[in-house]
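note to self — DONT lose this again. spent like an hour looking for the file last time. sequence + predicted structure for the chain T wanted, 602 res
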Amino acid sequence: MTHVLSAVAWPYANGPRHLGHVAGFGVPSDVFSRYMRMAGHDVLMVSGTDEHGTPILVQAEQEGVTPQALADRYNRVIAEDLHGLGLAYDLFTRTTTANHYSVVQEMFRTVHRNGYMVAKKAMGAISPSTGRTLPDRYVEGTCPICGFDGARGDQCDNCGNQLDAIELKNPRSRINGETPLFVETEHFFLDLPALAEALGEWLAGRSETGRWRPNVLKFSLNLLEDLKPRAMTRDIDWGIPVPLPGWEENPAKRLYVWFDAVIGYLSASVEWARRTGDPDAWKAWWTDPSAESYYFMGKDNITFHSQIWPAELLAYDGRGAHGGEPGRFGSLNLPTEVVASEFLTMEGKQFSSSRGVVIHVRDVLARYQPDALRYFISAAGPENNDSDFTWSEFATRTNSELVAGWGNLVNRTASLIAKNLGAIPAAGTLTDADRTLLAATEAGFDSVGTLIGSHRQRAGVAEAMRVVGEVNKYLTEQEPWKIKNSDPERMATVLHVAAQAVSDCRTQLSPYLPASSQAVHEALGGTGTVSPMPRLEEVTDLDDGRPYPILTGDYRRGETLPAWGRVPIVPGTPVAAPTPVFTKLDVAAVVEEELARLRPAE
C-alpha cells in the first residue's frame, strides 16, 4: 500500500468550466484516484479554485463587483459543477483562504532565504489610457521565436516557449487593443538557472522510469535548454502580499498568481489534514520519500508543473546551486509524474467562451447523464492527442456503447433473474463456456487496472467494454430463456455466471462510471455503497471564519468502496425487475438542438 497524491489542476474562478477543462484535468484524475483507492492505496485527491490574478480583477471591474465577490460566485459554481460530475475529491477548496496565504508566504520566505528569489529591475507593460499595469497575460503579439501571432506576454502557446512581454513583436493590450508602454519596475525572480542542474537530474530520473507520456517528457526536457529567471511578483493589488519588509505594506505588489496557485496542492493538503483533526496527516503524502504524486492538467500548464513547481520545491529544500535549508514543512516530495492531456476541441473549433464556442459542464449535466459525459471523455478524450467533441459522436456512443452494450447486458441479466427466479441463483455444474467467461472477466481486473494505473485510460475503458462484449456474447449463445422448462438447473447456472460476470464488469467500470455503477449494483439486489460520491459541504475558513463550499467525501475501502477484484455474488439475493440504467438519446434531435444553441455565436 502506497500513499498517492492526486494533484488536480486548479480551475480559474472567472466563470463556469467547459468540457475542455474537465477533459484535461477532471475526469482523468478521478478515474485514476478511484481505481488507486480500490487497489488498496491511500489516495489524497486535492484541488480548488484559483482566485487571484488580473483576469478576475478586470472582470470584477467590468461587472462592478469586488474581486472577492466574483471569486465567491464562481467558486460555488465550479464546485457545484464538479460535484455534479462526481469527482471524488478529498478536498476541493480555494486559494483565498487564510490557510493558503500562510502556506504560500512560508514557501516564499524560505525560497528567498535560501537565495533563489532575487529582486531585480525589469520592464513592465503599462496601459497608456489608464496608467495601470498590464500583466504579461494581458499583452499579446507575435512570438519572436516561432512567429505565431497571438502569443501572450508570458508564454507562446504555439511553441511553448516562455517569453517576456517586451520581447513580443507588435505588442497590444488584450483589454482594449492599444499599444502598451514599457516602464521599469522591480520584481522578485525565481532563479531558475541556479536550479537548472537539480531540475535536469530530476527530469533525467523521470525519463529513466519510462512512465511519463513521451510528449510531456520531451516538452519538459526542452524547457531546460533556455532557463532564465522567472518573475514571481506582479504589479497588481489583487493577490497574496509579498511577505518581506518594505514589500508587504506595498498595496501594488503581489505574488504572481501562478506562484501561489501551484502551492495550492500543498496548502489544500494542509487544510484537509487540519479539517480531519490531525494537522500533521498531510506529511504522509509530502515528506515520506516512498509516497507518489501525480499531477493532472491540460498541456498548456506543463511548464508550471514540470519546471516552475519542481523548481520552487527544490529551492525550498535548498537543493540548488545556492544551497540552503528546508523551511518548517521539511523536505517536500517532487512530482512522480506530470500527467498532461492534449486539447479537446468542439465541433472542429477551439473552445472560446468569448466567441461562444463553448459547452459548459453544467449545461451538459442539466440535459444528460453525468456518466454519459464521463464515458465520452474517457473513451474519446484528448489523452495523447487532440480530440474533437461532437454532439453526433456523443449521442451515438451513448446509444451504441452504453445503452445497447453495457446497459442492455445489465438489464437483460437482471430481467431474466427477476422474471424466472426472483433471486440470484446458485450455480450448478460449470461447463467449459462458463469457466472461460468467468476467467475472462476475472482477468479484466489485471488488464483494466494496469491500463488505468499507467494513465492509459482510453485503452482501459476499451478493455472493460471488450469484456462486456464477451458477457453479452455468452448470454446470446447460452440462450437461458429457452431452457426454463427443459433444463431449469442449467438456466440457473447460466444466470448465476452472467450475474457474477456483470458484477465483475461493474467493478471494472466503476472508476469511469461511478453513478451508474451504483445503479448496476442495486439492479442485482446489492445494498450499501459501492461507488462513493463526493459531498458538497458548507464550511467556514479555519482561520478567519468566512463561509465557502468544499467538496469532500468518504472513500474508505471496505466500508464505502469495494476492493479491486472479484466480489462473489450471494445466491438468494432478491432481484426485482430493473429499470434502464442509461437513457437512450434521439441522435438527430440532440444534434439539431445542440447545434442550434451554438448558431447565434457563429
